[in-house]
Amino acid sequence: MDCKVLVLGAGGLGCEILKNLTMMRVKEVHIVDMDTIELTNLNRQFLFRDEDINSPKATTAAQYINDRPSLSSRTKVIPYVQDLTNFPTEFFQQFQFIISGLDAIEPRRFVNKVLLQLTKESNYDICIPFIDGGTEGLKGHVKTIIPGFTACWECSLNTLPTQQNTYPMCTVANNPRTLEHIIEYVISVQTSADMDLEDEGQVDTLFQLCKERANQFNIDTKKLNVSYMLGIIKKIVPSVSCTNAMIAASCCNQMMKIYYDLMDFEKDGNFTMINGADGCFTYTFAYDRDPHCAVCSGI
Amino acid sequence: MDRYDRQLRLWGKEGQSLLDNANICVVGDESPLLQEVWKNLVLSGVSKFTWMIENTMESSLQEKDLFSCDFITEISALHPSGIRVKRKALASLKGADNSFWFQFSLIIIINCSDSKLLELFNNSDSQYFPPIITTFATGLYGYLHTYLSEPHFIIESHPDNPIPELRLDQPWKELSIYLTKFQVDKMNEFEISELPYPVLLFHCVQMAARNNYKLTSPLLRNELRRWASDTNPTGLNDPNYIEAYRFAHLAFTNEKILIRLNEMIQYGFSMDHLDDPYNRKVIALLKALGEYINREDFPIYPIMGTIPDMSSSTKNYIELKQIYQNEGQKNTKSLQKLLDKEGEEVPFEMIKLFCANLKYLNVIKPTASKLTLLFSSDDDLLRDLLAIQYNLNDIANSGAINMKAASMNSYPTASFMGGVVGQEAIKLITHQYIPLDNIFTYDGLKNETKIFRI
Fold this sequence. Notes:
The complex is a heterodimer of chains A (299) and B (454).
Chain A: E1 4-8, H1 12-23, E2 28-32, H2 57-66, H3 69-72, E3 76-80, H4 89-93, E4 97-100, H5 106-121, E5 130-136, E6 139-145, H6 169-174, H7 179-190, H8 200-216, H9 226-233, H10 241-259, E7 271-275, E8 281-285
Parallel strand pairs in A: 1-2, 1-4, 2-3, 4-5
Antiparallel strand pairs in A: 5-6, 6-7, 7-8
Chain B: H1 5-20, E1 23-27, H2 32-44, E2 48-53, H3 71-76, E3 84-89, H4 98-102, E4 106-110, H5 115-119, E5 132-138, E6 141-147, E7 152-154, H6 173-180, H7 189-193, H8 197-210, H9 217-231, H10 239-246, H11 255-270, H12 277-294, H13 314-340, H14 348-356, E8 362-364, H15 380-389, H16 403-407, H17 411-430, E9 439-443, E10 448-452
Parallel strand pairs in B: 1-2, 1-4, 2-3, 4-5
Antiparallel strand pairs in B: 5-6, 6-9, 7-8, 9-10
Helix pairs in contact in B: 2-17, 8-9, 8-10, 9-10, 11-12, 12-13, 13-14
Protein name (chain A): NEDD8-activating enzyme E1 catalytic subunit
Pfam families (chain A): ThiF
Enzyme class (chain A): ligase
């Protein structure tokens, strides 16, 4: 496909998206990610190997394609290891599609805003489709945003899953009942904010503090181990290759349909949700534009 | 942290160990779909495969549609200890007996083009087969079919919204002693605010019982509000009162669950001679459960033994939680005793899981006795896909397929279907989460999927 695509994120979705774009013979793909590879990525980020741990994701993913002649002959991949909100507006202008596999909210809001501005300022000369995928465990979503035509990312901000429970401080401090309450207290009261969660020694100190406090309040510690504790502190979201594959594939099929003019922006759904926990439920619908949207209402 | 940390959070060590030990039979030649399915399985931890192919020679073919020329080697690197693949000629499948099929956790037939092959799996003389997934993808379309020769039971279905069970309408002795010892009427507003909400609900349940009238959840809510307004009006904004009002319906045992469990038990009794060892254990558990439920004058099933977090002082909450936990353990042990008679060895951990998830117990019933019944489906999209897959001229194109979209080369569609197949394989192997039952079609043009049963 004779086009240039920007992929946001080289994680679970990013690896899948990059692979799909290569198989679709997209001429050039740029990929941005500022993270490095960790052991727990390897159950789904299949462009990385054990020896790549600690290397930047974007360059390692790009190298996977660029090093293999059968793949590099199809697609040229250019990596960026940096915060994408530092790119100037002109950077985004060179792409025909932007596909996101990010989990953070702010960078996606940023890109959405930039793309809508571009469409507005160019008086619809520039209109770059923004396809956004996200997963959590066996669930996922795909949003297809055609700036100025369909609902933008901001319009559907309220569909984001609610942030993890926050507990009232009086419960955490005075009436802890669960391990979550214990861990929350240890992390917010008993330790300093610049804890290094990659440091084994510091993690162990945290763990001991949690155990002590749980025992002090007679809270069952059967479930308490380091991975459970870190899950709560880092708000870790479960992730598995199958769901990433489904969501990334849906993103890429959306792109393909736009490219080959198989999509009706007015009529077709722009929002798909998938849940594989019970059967395999999917729901596609047209998410309406918010007439009062802070980003796209003027366009 | 563990390499599999992000998925252990979905199915735990038990699920992972079933995946680690799984042995999967893959039937089909190299294709994007086969490669995608395989990739997902290896990433999830599966390492033992038997590959049934037309030609067992190592392929040196540079397939232009594959992500990597030598995908088995590339995919093998995705498993910390590599994968083992036994290649076998497709022709050797004929005449394979039970013992051959028994070694597999699952059979996956990918992009098959020979309908004769499917006839091998027609279950005419009730031969045992592990679950069989058949799948096919073309253009922007694909389907998956799960074929079961035995029921598939799910103990851990992981519902999105688990519903706690308080049994305040049928309290056991320890619970009722604990809940009444508070003497709520003599407490001041501060003490009341430290009570877990079941104490408040039980107080109202008992007041109603003394007045001899039968409660329902709306009546209990009224009762609760009247009591609080009369005796503790400042407490109306306390979190525990708000929870009591909101969760009043949880005070009552849900009769539908008993009905559902009885249906499951009946179903268990109707099954004899099952080959799958997991199934035999579940059947034994169901039979023991049948006896458990009907041994008392009023039917009651083992309690889950857990309560969710609720507003309360630490001490009160921990005590209440302990009472539920003790009863859960006691009930589990009683069930274990009844199970002894069934003559089936069931690990205690499984009995515990069974009791803790009783309300969410689920079963996917076996499919029609012939895999080839697929061809008698009247679903337009499926029929059109089968016509393309098996080159059947007698099935006319119904128009469910857009020919341009069907002839397009869409690698993402293979990847999507590979994701669904991987997910279903994991669910079937781990006996966790509920598999789809039993046909799934994907229409990438409309971004629509459908599930129906044949």
